[in-house]
Design goal:
Pfam families: DUF6348. InterPro entries: DUF6348. With 230 residues, the protein is α+β, with helices and mostly antiparallel strands. It has helices at 8-23, 66-69, 82-106, 144-151, 155-162, 197-205, and strands at 28-30, 33-35, 41-45, 54-60, 70-76, 113-115, 126-138, 170-180, 185-191, 194-195, 215-227. The protein folds into 2 domains: 8-106, no CATH class; 113-227, no CATH class. It contains 6 helices and 11 strands. A hairpin with an 8-residue loop joins strand 3 (41-45) and strand 4 (54-60).
Length: 230
């Protein structure tokens, strides 16, 4: 993969194509963003890493009110070319963040699961939507971390750490990325696009599998819709 980033218009075109395929509805690039039906849009923000396969993407539920309807995230892809890495990043984003947002819009359980504020596997006090859990890696156990994440709900583990750190009482997006192998590991929790150090450290301390051979990674996205205790 070369070090040259793709032009924003090219990336947005790739996002529009993947969104159209995922939703079976037309998405198109206009005025520097990807627009779907109604008020929803996707904005490509300035990359904070410098990596050509990394994207900073915002779902904006109402483009006329971006301040309180934006769900921020970032994602990195991999591949032999920059185009392959960017396309993979978009697919990872759609399978995790996208599934949570699509479920918020559809409210029918077809894209992701809902958790009530008092659900054991949810986030106390909040209605939550848990997006897809995607896994990848190398070797025979490349899906080990994905399977662990499916069997060990993260929301109740994150709640004591994240607690009252939120700046608003609705639409809190939480990205979790974890994985590695025998000699390397990576963990990251981002809240509304910003790395949360304490939660990331907590994730490091959990007993998710570290394969002796090969690598195993998982990514997921959880959306806290609204605080029902306010």
């Amino acid at each position: 993969m070369n070090d040259d980033r793709l032009a924003d218009e090219v990336v947005l075109g790739m996002v529009a194509r993947r969104l159209s395929e995922a939703t079976d509805k037309p998405w198109h690039v206009t005025d520097g963003m990807v627009r779907g039906t109604g008020t929803v849009g996707v904005v490509l923000r300035d990359d904070h890493t410098g990596s050509p396969g990394h994207l900073d993407l915002d779902f904006v539920l109402n483009v006329d009110r971006p301040d309180d309807t934006t769900i921020s995230d970032c994602v990195a892809g991999y591949g032999g070319t920059t185009e392959e890495a960017v396309d993979r990043a978009i697919q990872l984003w759609l399978g995790t963040t996208g599934s949570a947002v699509f479920e918020l819009l559809s409210q029918d359980g077809s894209f992701a699961g809902h958790f009530a504020p008092d659900a054991p596997d949810g986030f106390p006090g909040w209605h939550a939507i848990h997006g897809g859990i995607t896994g990848w890696g190398t070797g025979d156990d490349f899906l080990a971390v994905q399977h662990w994440a499916m069997d060990n709900p993260l929301l109740p583990r994150l709640a004591p750490v994240l607690g009252s750190t939120f700046e608003r009482d609705h639409l809190i997006g939480i990205k979790a990325f974890l994985g590695g192998g025998k000699d390397t590991e990576t963990t990251e929790i981002r809240v509304n696009g910003v790395r949360h150090e304490a939660a990331s450290e907590m994730l490091t301390e959990l007993d998710w599998p570290r394969p002796a051979e090969g690598l195993s990674y998982a990514r997921t996205f959880m959306l806290l819709v609204h605080n029902e205790t306010e």
